[in-house]
Design goal:
Helix content: 25-40%
CATH class: Alpha Beta
Number of helices: 6
Distance between the termini: 47 Å
Order of helices and strands: HEEHHEHEEHH
Radius of gyration: 14 Å
Number of strands: 5
Strand order of the largest sheet: 1-3-2-4-5
CATH topology: Glutaredoxin
Low-confidence stretches: 1-22
Length: 140
């Protein structure tokens, strides 16, 4: 049953995600939690009430334009346009309509916005985080 649900999610979002970026932009698995990404990735979760939401489509398009910047910052983008599914992330973050939420590696919400955000502003928010500053120093 779990495999069927995952297949349905992938089919529902096939027109939104492309084969080149499944490791960065992907639909939320019904059992995904923030703990799954603790200390390894910075999740950006994009919520909407429908995959046809104009803000949802705009946000995904903006994120796709700068995949490299997101990868450099250990970002994983999770998509959820099905409020009926009521997965653990939706329960924990409680979005209303469209929302984009940036979560740090520590599992804390760092940014919550009701409108699409460009990658530049998301990158700036990430680069201000203490852990990201440590990563930048370590890479020099």
């Amino acid at each position: 049953m779990k495999k069927i649900l995952i297949a349905l999610y992938l089919l529902a979002f096939a027109n939104i995600t492309c084969a080149e970026e499944p490791h960065i932009i992907k639909p939320i698995d019904p059992e995904t939690t923030l703990e799954d990404f603790a200390w390894t990735h910075r999740p950006i979760i994009v919520f909407a009430n429908s995959p046809n939401d104009i803000n949802f489509k705009r946000q995904i398009a903006m994120l796709r334009t700068s995949i490299i910047e997101l990868e450099e910052r250990n970002v994983v983008v999770l998509l959820d346009a099905d409020p009926v599914a009521n997965n653990p992330l939706r329960k924990a973050l409680r979005p209303r309509g469209f929302a984009i939420i940036l979560v740090g590696k520590d599992g804390q919400i760092k940014l919550r916005k009701p409108l699409p955000q460009d990658v530049r502003s998301l990158s700036r928010a990430i680069d201000k985080m203490p852990m990201r500053r440590q990563e930048i120093k370590a890479s020099k």
